[in-house]
Write a structure and sequence with these properties.
about 5% strand; two-stranded antiparallel ribbon; 2 domains; mainly alpha; about 45% helix; single chain; 8 helices; globular; two-stranded antiparallel sheet; about 230 residues
Length: about 230
């Protein structure tokens, strides 16, 4: 690793090894918080395992709640609203997630063996970025009407599922999915596997394309032809 110019990183010799000494913090007042200042979650008796949330390790908090949802579902609980404490709900809200999302992951993992935690995390990472960067951490007040989602048999360019998947992906990005729909459900996973597309990857493509369905379909068609 090449240290930054001017950093206090003089190597210290220990035996035959060289170790980099961490820079000493400069004296003086701390800089003002930026627009991306860390959100710190207050702790309470209902959240013994949660530490104050920092962007750097949000995945650890998400993992803890994912595991909790899996255990709650295995124990026979079926109401996502009862899975988490108010402090845990605040954490989910801060990353653009909701109890239903973790319930869906737990339910499908129990019944079908997928998606795994890593997939859930990658999808949530895209949603979190969109929520914080595009929506400025302001949740949408809209919920997509399931009746407006195209049928499962709808096709474009001879490929079934994109007409249904694209509005679901946009709703996932924006936090507008109804609780009756899951991004990454069994039908979605079948499509992703068939065309070698990761769910998080598709979410990023939809983010980049915006409302341009043609661009998304062309991307899928190229991937399908590989």
């Amino acid at each position: 690793m090449i240290p930054d110019a001017g950093a206090n990183t003089a190597p210290r010799r220990t035996g035959s090894a060289l170790r980099c000494v961490p820079p000493t913090p400069a004296a003086g007042p701390r800089p003002a918080a930026s627009a991306f200042a860390l959100f710190r979650l207050p702790l309470g008796p209902g959240s013994p395992n949660l530490r104050p949330m920092e962007h750097y390790d949000f995945h650890k908090e998400f993992r803890a709640l994912y595991d909790k949802a899996v255990k709650q579902y295995a124990a026979g609980k079926r109401n996502p609203a009862d899975f988490f404490s108010k402090h845990e709900l605040a954490f989910l809200a801060a990353i653009g997630s909701r109890p239903q999302d973790l319930y869906d992951y737990a339910e499908d993992a129990a019944n079908y063996g997928e998606p795994d935690f890593e997939t859930a995390l990658l999808v949530q990472a895209v949603r979190r970025s969109y929520f914080q960067l595009v929506q400025k951490s302001e949740p949408s007040t809209l919920v997509v009407d399931e009746a407006t989602i195209p049928a499962k048999t709808a096709a474009v360019k001879g490929i079934e599922w994109p007409p249904r998947l694209m509005p679901k992906a946009r709703a996932k990005l924006r936090g507008e999915l109804p609780t009756s729909l899951m991004y990454g459900c069994g039908g979605d996973r079948r499509f992703f596997k068939q065309h070698d597309i990761h769910p998080a990857e598709f979410l990023q493509v939809v983010w980049h394309a915006g409302d341009n369905d043609t661009a998304i379909v062309e991307w899928v068609a190229k991937r399908a032809a590989l």
